[in-house]
Amino acid sequence: MTVSLPFWRIRLQSLKNERFSREKTNRYTRYVFWGTIGLCFWAFVFFLFYRVLNYFRQVEILGDILAMKLLYMIIVTCFGILILSNLIIMLSKLYLARDLNLVFSLPLSGREIFVTRFWETVVDASWMVLLFGFPIFLSYGIVYKSHFDFYLLSLAAMGILCVIASGISAVLTLLAGAILPAGRLRAGLSLVTVLAVVAVVVAVRLLRPEQLVNPDRFMSVAYYLSSLKVSSSPLLPTTWAYDAIRLALRGGNLLNIVHNLALSITGAATLVYLGAWLADKYLRRGFSRAEMVKRKVTKREKAWGEKRWPFIAPDTQAFFMKEFKTFLRDQSQWPQLVLVLVLIGIYLYNFSVLPLDKTPIKTVYLQNVFSFLNIGLAAFVLTAIAARFVYPALSLEGKAFWIVLSAPTERKRFIRIKFFFYLLPLLLLSEMLIVSSNLLLGVDPLMMFISVGSMLFLVPMITALALSFGALYPAFHHENPVESVTSFGGILYMIVSSMLVVFIIALEAGPVYHLCMASIRRESLSLLQILWAAFTFSFVGFLCLGTVVLSLQKGERHLKFLD
Amino acid sequence: MVALEAVSKSYGPVKAVDGISLQVARGEIFGLIGPNGAGKTTTLRLMGGIILPDSGRIFIDGIPLITHPVAAKKLIGFIPDRPYLYEKLTGWEFLQFIADVYRLNRPQAMKRAEFWLEMFGLDGRQHDLVESYSHGMKQRLAITAALLHDPPLIIVDEPMVGLDPAGAKLVRDLLRKQAKDGKTIFLSTHTLSLAEELCNRIGIINHGKLMATGTMEELRQLVQAGEGHLEDVFFKLTTEEMV
Predict the structure, then answer these.
(1) How far apart are CA A310 and CA A340, in angstroms?
(2) In this complex, which of B52, B73, B98 lies closest to A561 when CB atoms are compared?
(3) What is the spatial distance between Cα A316 and Cα A159, in angstroms, rounded to a whole number?
(4) Which residues of B touch A560 (CB under 8 A)?
(5) For residues A549 and B201, what is the distance between their CA atoms, to the nearest angstrom?
(6) In Å, how far is B51's CA from the nearest CA of chain A?
(7) Which pLDDT tens digit goes with each residue over A136-173?
(8) Which residues of A touch B (CB under 8 A)?
(9) Smallest Cβ distance to A297: which of B87, B101, B127?
(10) pLDDT tens for residues B137-150?
(11) Would you kindly state where each structural domain of chain A is located, as residue ranges?
């Protein structure tokens, strides 16, 4: 453990030294921004659980079962999130971080390096889960009128669960480092991580929670109750944590609580010991193997960009080709693409299982309502995709950005090239998404036209905003610029983009309603309704195009004064 | 060829470049020397149009760099001290990219590229990804890219960093040859012997201020260094300033 102390001291020192940072004002704004968002979210979680649990308490027998089922689901979800975040952070800490060359040059054994990195990962991967899990346990404690020891025991149980999650991730990462072929370790581990995310998302979706509100599915009350009862293996860490917290909540036998905590502690200790043993054997070898092997360029790749189109300026083609090749050859992008495809698959699957025929509302109304709301939903999905791929596009230029800055190409031209490079695939993707979901819903041509038309205006707006915020908050020196999406600028972009989408959907709601109703009833629109619709759609058009122009101008201006 | 008029640049409270004015004639090799953090790289980045000055004007062959950056940059070949390049392109693709960005005649430019690649010993490796190159190879590729459009002004930040002795000699000879052909070379270096050997005129910068400029003879006279080397002149000027 003592070997970790200098590393922790460096981290604390770096935090302290932030006061010498040049961006003092910016830093305080960020603290206030994040603090406010965090507090709002914290309060929201607390009141949501407080209300739900109070409601459950009023329902005899079933209420308690539901509350405990919810508690178990929360613990399992937290554990899943912990495993995933630990895998991502552990991969970086053990094999990819910038300071690893220095760390491996120090007179430290694999075990010592592992121990240092392990505890750093535990803190980095767990603090958020513990922080935002606290209002949940607080609401349980208040509703069940628990004593103070419940909070302490819950914190202990969840804390040990965090260590167990880190231990499992460490063992998996170290084993992967020993097994995966050299040079493919980074891509292989990234892929494993994404596949784990996909597995969790698909598993949750396949539970088909929509069936819980369909009483016809359950043959009897007994069957329904038995489906709610928590039954899990006593070998699972989530069961130990759940049992300890449940017993503490209801003032259960202290010996049983200690028994479950002891199981958790010994489980965590075993995993840490196993990790240290594996690290001694494989960490150094894995780190050497993580270095990329020389990749050969294929004949077909060599042909890319050899030909030039006469109708596009050569520098535009050069930047397009550079973006294209860089994107395709960057193996870290592939797993993310897999994730996007899976999420789109689930998105469309959701539309295919909507029980439209089982509702008392007429299907034709619901089809139109869902189709209209789907515009907003698709725009949100697109915002998330743009946040991942477009927002860091400028930052991904990294330290090679001097090439662009010293080239005889205007910076506004450069940002516009980036804009069109991302606009085309995003437009294609969003239109495919909207058309496919509309086909699954079976909407009429009018609604199809409105949806497709709206996306034509929304996509450029979302793309330009992402690029502009990426230029305003660049992360050229970030270890992995893609991660900048979770930074202040990235979150601000998602908030602004989502708010604009909500505003546009709200604006269009009235005219679209009248248009659809007139179409269903085969009536004609009044003059006022026609004027309202014309004004709204023109305004939305101007708003979207205006946002594109202003965003790109703002981004261009910021790039011009970038040092 | 190059004219700086009262150029200043600050990073927060730190004045990196403080009212520098100087002129460099066509065919001249001008060397900027100074201690670490003196403002050499910032000056070169300002001249390359990479960053904008807070005040002052920069002219490249009479073209104002700040108001007409595209026209001015076409005349510059910029070589940074650390060759960060597009790692996912091959060397050949990177040179094609540069040829297109500078809007050169592609076949002619690539013929020139072949010549430079062979000269720098990169032929045979041009179809490998840049990420597989060593630091020295990347530096050679960056120099090739800077020379591809045959610029009348070459700005080089620490030309010898990362180069092996053979590469360093090659670059030294190349810079001399370019100057002989009428090109202007503006370089910054820590290697005083290189500046003394290569440059027609030298500027000494410290704390963002140009302390002195002139030929070796003029600098010696300025500090009354007799037959002393540039090292004596440099320490006299920079140490006196510090005192």
Answers:
(1) 35
(2) B52
(3) 53
(4) 52
(5) 48
(6) 6
(7) 999 999 999 888 889 999 999 999 999 999 999 999 88
(8) 22, 292, 294-297, 302, 305, 308, 313-315, 317-319, 321-322, 325-326, 329-330, 398-400, 402-403, 405-410, 560-563
(9) B127
(10) 999 999 999 999 99
(11) 24-290, 318-560
Which is it for strands B153-157 and B2-11: parallel, antiparallel or unpaired? unpaired
* pLDDT level of residue B242 (50, 70, 90 thresholds): very low
Residue B192's pLDDT band, with cuts at 50, 70 and 90, is confident
Q: Tell me, what DSSP letter sits at residue A487?
A: S
Give the predicted TM-score (pTM) of the model: 0.77
Prediction ipTM score: 0.89
What are the structure tokens assigned to A65, written together? Answer: 């079962």
Residue A472 has pLDDT above 60, yes or no: yes
- The full set of domain ranges for chain B reads 2-75+152-242, 85-150
C-alpha to C-alpha distance for B78 and B47, rounded to whole angstroms: 9
CA angle at A269 for the pair A266 and A273, rounded to the nearest 5°:
140
CA distance A448 to A439: 9
Say whether domain B2-75+152-242 belongs to CATH 3.30.70.100: no
Kindly report the nearest CA distance between residue A331 and chain B, in angstroms: 10
**How much helix, strand and coil, in percent to the nearest 5, is found in chain B?**
40, 25, 35
**B154 neighbors B77 (Cβ within 8 angstroms):** yes
Give the contacts of A34 (CB within 8 A, at least 6 positions apart).
Answer: A488
**pLDDT of A437-464, one tens digit each?**
999 888 888 899 999 999 999 999 999 9
B-chain residues within 8 Å CB-CB of A302?
90, 92, 127
Q: Among residues B88, B189, B80, which one has the least CA distance to residue B145?
A: B80
Cβ of A297 within 8 Å of Cβ of B78? The answer is: no
Does the distance separating the beta carbons of A402 and B51 come in below 8 Å? no
pLDDT in tens, B30-81: 999 988 888 999 999 999 999 889 999 999 999 999 999 999 999 999 999 8
